[in-house]
Amino acid sequence: MLVGNTGGIFGEGRWSLKQRFSVAIGTAILVALVTMYGVRLMGKAATFHFLERNHMELALRIDAALNRVEQAARNAGDTHIDTISGQLGEARQLAVRADNEVFGFEQQLLRLLGFGPLIDLPQKDIADVDGMLAIISASPTRSGPMPVELAQQLRPGMDAMMENSMAFAPLTADAASFIKISVFAVSALCSLLLVATAFALRRRTLGPLAIAIEAAERVASGDLTGHMKVVGRDEAAALMNALHNMNESLSRLVNDARQDSGLIAESASTVRQQSEAGSDKVRYQSDAVAAISSTIEELATSIASVADRADEVRNLSDESLAVSRDGWRNMELRRRKHSCATPARFPH
Is 99 within 8 Å of 122 (Cβ atoms)? Predict the structure, then answer.
């Protein structure tokens, strides 16, 4: 007995092959999307590292320049206000880019995951840099070497900028590590789901088809004794059910043919017996016809002989009649002669 079960991970035959393939394709698309999004997040993490390092480099350069001005170092005159303003502008651009690097829903997700400071730091840094640029814009001296008073006014903002940069580095490293682990974990889970879906689809599709092929080969070899127990209501189950019905129909057809062949054999035997009996009767009738033919021939011979004798009798009769007529004529003549010779007598 062949048993075909089309259930399993997709339910006991409640899912059609079209639905199963749709689930498999959907799973593959989901895995591809998750992988692509994971690659995007890892790319964003690398971008955050790049922005953090560049921001740290600018912050260190600006801090070193302000330190030289504040300490009235020998080369403090090389620190120009325009240079500091340009570097602050670059730092602000890096902070703005970091703030706009991820989408709004991604920022909310990172906040839910505990990375709120990583999202807030770029905005805070933008505010600190804007404050220092505002101080420079409000300063009487907007170009040339930076005076000590301006450097001292910029120091609180610079310390805040350094603090932001120093805090951004570990937050970025933690977020990048978390994203990397999460991406690998989700990708592995999705890959396992895809493999499980493919395996289940292969099992629930190729398994019943293999049973159906085996059943078809048994029918082709003339073995109609097999029985298939179909479980499920999908296309594979419908195919196996059709093969089962075909097997049953062929079995009934063969049984009917055997019964009909038996009846035909009995009828042929009866016809043969009747034919033999008819042959005997024909043979007997042929002998009877031959005997009748012989009798008819003898009768014809006898009739011919009788006809010949009848002719002889008729000739003899004619001769006898002629003789009789001649004798009667002679007697009549004699009687007349005698009458003429005797005298007549008259009464008195």
Answer: yes
Q: How far apart are CA 199 and CA 89, in angstroms?
A: 57
Per-residue pLDDT at 8:
47
3-state secondary structure of 13: coil
For the entire predicted model, the pTM comes to 0.54
DSSP code per residue over 239-279: HHHHHHHHHHHHHHHHHHHHHHHHHHHHHHHHHHHHHHHHH
The CB-side HSE value for 189 (13 A sphere, CA atoms) comes to 9
Q: What is the pLDDT of residues 151-188, one digit of tens each?
A: 889 999 999 999 988 888 888 888 888 888 888 888 88
Q: What is the dihedral of CA 252, 255, 260, 266, to 10 degrees?
A: -160
Tens digits of residue pLDDT in 236-282: 677 777 777 777 787 778 778 878 787 887 877 887 887 777 777 77
Cβ–Cβ contacts within 10 Å for residue 146, how many? 27
Give Cβ neighbours of residue 40 (< 8 Å, ≥ 6 apart). Answer: none
More confident residue, 148 or 282: 148
CA distance 218 to 201: 26
Compute and round to an integer the Cα radius of gyration of the chain.
68
Residue 257 CA from chain centroid, whole number: 35
The DSSP result for 161-190, as a single string, is HHHHHHHHHHHHHHHHHHHHHHHHHHHHHH
User: Could you tell me the end-to-end alpha-carbon distance of the chain, in angstroms, rounded to an integer?
Assistant: 151
Domain architecture of the chain: domains with CATH? 14-199 (1.20.120)
Give 113's DSSP letter: T
Distance (Å, rounded) from C-alpha 270 to C-alpha 53? 110
Q: In whole angstroms, what is the distance from residue 295 CA to residue 282 CA?
A: 19
